[in-house]
Amino acid sequence: MTSPSGHESEALLTPGEVAALFRVDPKTVTRWAQDGRLSSVRTLGGHRRFRAAEVHALLAQSSSPPTS
Fold first, then answer.
1. For the chain, what is the domain count?
2. In whole angstroms, what is the distance from residue 12 CA to residue 49 CA?
3. How many CB atoms lie within 10 A of CB 13?
4. Domain contains 18
5. Considering the domain boundaries, does residue 16 fall inside one?
6. Which of 13, 18, 45 is nearest to 31 (CA)?
7. Tell me: the pLDDT tens digits for 51-63?
8. In CATH, what number is assigned to the domain containing residue 42?
């Protein structure tokens, strides 16, 4: 499926859904977006949504064991 902008539809997550994945408060997720750690898009109503693929990549990166 293609959106009017020509991009394929992406799965989007709410701040609450992202917070549940990382086990943090939703306000922390909003702060990450403000700091540029996680990109977000705004709905027509002004609410933040996060790209699921980016969130899952960050989650995988943060849960992987450190390499030495």
1. 1
2. 6
3. 20
4. yes
5. yes
6. 18
7. 999 999 999 988 7
8. 1.10.1660.10
